[in-house]
Protein backbone atom coordinates (compact mmCIF):
# COMPACT_ATOMS: atom_id res chain seq x y z
CA UNK A 1 0.00 0.00 0.00
CA UNK A 2 1.38 3.38 -0.99
CA UNK A 3 1.20 5.57 2.12
CA UNK A 4 2.25 8.69 0.19
CA UNK A 5 -0.79 8.25 -2.09
CA UNK A 6 -3.07 7.92 0.92
CA UNK A 7 -1.46 10.99 2.55
CA UNK A 8 -1.93 12.98 -0.66
CA UNK A 9 -5.55 11.82 -0.97
CA UNK A 10 -6.27 12.84 2.63
CA UNK A 11 -4.78 16.29 2.03
CA UNK A 12 -6.77 16.72 -1.19
CA UNK A 13 -10.01 15.64 0.47
CA UNK A 14 -9.39 18.19 3.23
CA UNK A 15 -8.74 20.90 0.66
CA UNK A 16 -11.94 20.04 -1.24
CA UNK A 17 -13.90 20.17 2.00
CA UNK A 18 -12.38 23.53 2.95
CA UNK A 19 -13.06 25.13 -0.45
CA UNK A 20 -16.45 23.57 -1.19
CA UNK A 21 -17.90 23.11 2.28
CA UNK A 22 -19.16 19.63 1.31
CA UNK A 23 -18.01 16.22 2.50
CA UNK A 24 -15.83 14.42 -0.06
CA UNK A 25 -16.37 10.74 -0.88
CA UNK A 26 -13.40 8.43 -1.41
CA UNK A 27 -13.24 5.28 -3.52
CA UNK A 28 -10.06 3.19 -3.35
CA UNK A 29 -8.94 0.64 -5.92
CA UNK A 30 -5.61 -1.20 -6.17
CA UNK A 31 -4.38 1.40 -8.71
CA UNK A 32 -5.78 4.70 -7.48
CA UNK A 33 -7.71 6.68 -4.92
CA UNK A 34 -10.61 8.73 -6.32
CA UNK A 35 -12.08 11.59 -4.32
CA UNK A 36 -15.37 13.23 -5.31
CA UNK A 37 -17.02 16.27 -3.77
CA UNK A 38 -20.30 17.96 -4.62
CA UNK A 39 -20.01 21.56 -5.78
CA UNK A 40 -22.49 23.82 -4.01
CA UNK A 41 -24.66 26.16 -6.02
CA UNK A 42 -23.27 29.67 -5.98
CA UNK A 43 -19.61 28.69 -5.59
CA UNK A 44 -17.70 31.94 -5.99
CA UNK A 45 -15.35 32.49 -8.90
CA UNK A 46 -12.52 33.12 -6.43
CA UNK A 47 -13.10 29.76 -4.70
CA UNK A 48 -13.29 28.02 -8.08
CA UNK A 49 -9.97 29.56 -9.15
CA UNK A 50 -8.30 28.67 -5.81
CA UNK A 51 -9.53 25.10 -6.18
CA UNK A 52 -8.29 24.73 -9.77
CA UNK A 53 -4.94 26.31 -8.87
CA UNK A 54 -4.48 23.96 -5.92
CA UNK A 55 -5.35 20.90 -8.00
CA UNK A 56 -3.04 21.96 -10.82
CA UNK A 57 -0.20 22.50 -8.34
CA UNK A 58 -0.85 19.06 -6.82
CA UNK A 59 -0.01 17.39 -10.15
CA UNK A 60 -2.96 14.98 -10.03
CA UNK A 61 -5.67 14.01 -12.49
CA UNK A 62 -8.85 15.96 -11.80
CA UNK A 63 -12.06 17.06 -13.44
CA UNK A 64 -15.51 18.54 -13.06
CA UNK A 65 -18.62 16.62 -14.10
CA UNK A 66 -22.36 17.07 -14.18
CA UNK A 67 -23.92 13.82 -12.93
CA UNK A 68 -27.45 12.47 -13.08
CA UNK A 69 -30.79 13.77 -14.21
CA UNK A 70 -30.59 16.79 -11.93
CA UNK A 71 -27.09 17.53 -13.30
CA UNK A 72 -25.37 17.53 -9.89
CA UNK A 73 -22.01 19.30 -10.17
CA UNK A 74 -19.06 17.25 -8.84
CA UNK A 75 -15.30 17.85 -8.67
CA UNK A 76 -13.20 14.68 -8.75
CA UNK A 77 -9.52 14.00 -8.13
CA UNK A 78 -7.55 10.80 -8.74
CA UNK A 79 -4.30 9.93 -6.98
CA UNK A 80 -2.32 7.04 -8.43
CA UNK A 81 -1.06 4.49 -5.94
CA UNK A 82 1.90 3.41 -8.07
CA UNK A 83 4.73 5.88 -8.22
CA UNK A 84 6.39 6.19 -11.61
Write the layout of secondary structure elements.
Elements: H1 3-20, E1 25-28, E2 32-38, H2 45-57, E3 61-67, E4 72-80
Antiparallel strand pairs: 1-2, 2-4, 3-4
Helix pairs in contact: 1-2
Give an account of the 3D structure.
With about 80 residues, this protein is of the alpha+beta class. The chain has a domain at about 1-35 and about 40-60. Helix content is about 35%, strand content about 30%. The protein is built from 2 helices and 4 strands; from the N terminus they run H-E-E-H-E-E. Strands 1-2-4-3 form a 4-stranded antiparallel sheet, with helices on one face. Strand 1 (about 25-30) and strand 2 form a beta hairpin. Helix 1 runs antiparallel to helix 2 (about 45-55). The longest helix has 18 residues, at about 5-20. It is globular, with a radius of gyration of 13 Å. The protein starts with a helix and ends with a strand. The model has no long low-confidence stretch (mean pLDDT about 90).
Amino acid sequence: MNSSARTAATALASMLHAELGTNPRTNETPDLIRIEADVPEGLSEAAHIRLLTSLTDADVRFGHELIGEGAKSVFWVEVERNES
